[in-house]
Here is the input.
Amino acid sequence: MNLLSGLRAWAVQRVSAVLLLGFVLWFAARLLLAPPDSYDQWRALVAHPTAEIALTIFFAALLAHAWVGVRDIVLDYVRWRPLRAAILVGVAAGLLATAAAIALAALHAR
Amino acid sequence: MKLSIYRYNPEQDARPRMQSYDIAPAPTDRMLLDLLLRLRESDDSVAFRRSCREGVCGSDAMNINGRNGLACITPLAQLKEPIVLRPLPGFPVIRDLVVDMTQFFAHYHSVRPYLINDEPPPERERPQSPAERAQLDGLYECILCACCSGFCPPYWWNPDKYIGPAGLLQAYRFIADSRDRATRERLEFLDDVYRLYRCRTIMNCTEVCPKHLSPSRAIERIRARLLGEAF
Here is the structure.
């Protein structure tokens, strides 16, 4: 496997962008057509199995897309390697923490 | 006509400066290069490259009023005054409008810009169908003037690692060639975070190419080929 492959990141960026767009359109249409009137209705909406799967895919795509995008900006602009490594580690840690927070929130809501 | 030209001699000057000139073009002076040669008659210290004076050699690429182009095929009538001339952005300056193309050509050579085919040579030439030959249109015409790479932000950011639009157009020229047998090796070489994938699809390259070629389309096709290879 080519560790420095650019194709993988590029493909992840494109596929995640399509998934994000699809989810945002679907979710916006869903909210516009049948807006939840109460917190309980909102909970029922996001707890529906279809919504659960869609939300899981959405957050996975969001985190992957954010990682590739920020990594690209850092590779473009940050030339000094120690600083570049530090920023990338910081961004990765931030995204992992975000993923953990999303997972905790999902577990808590059950 | 009023000119403002970037002047810098690294051996003498502490920093670059812009020098103003007012040159009267002769009635026969049609292109910017004509005016530059006219300027040389009064100030022969201004350095710039030129050779064929008809847009084929690619020597006189420079930044003209903020856009890269070839002085020899840029009509004076289309230029707003003062005409501001700078060296190709992002390239190390040797003197005035003359830039160091060493890295640019190193990238060009890195894509192995020649046919690779180890099969025994046929009695006569290696034939191509008209359709196969047509695949090379829009690719083989590149004159390596560097207008595109000199207008490409990712190339400014990573000139040592990103091959740049000119080199990638040349790479695709041989990937697309039906007679070449090294497509897989070429694609493997290009599948790299820096060499190919620094392209952000800004498309400045296609915008400024004085030969009206599209390096961004060539880059897109390399990516599509790489994607196809992955499955």
Q: What stands out?
A: The interface with chain A takes residues 154, 157-158, 188, 191-198, 200, 223, 226-227, 230 of chain B (CB under 8 Å). The mean pLDDT of chain B is 96. The first strand of chain B starts at residue 2 and ends at 7. The longest helix of chain B spans residues 215-230.
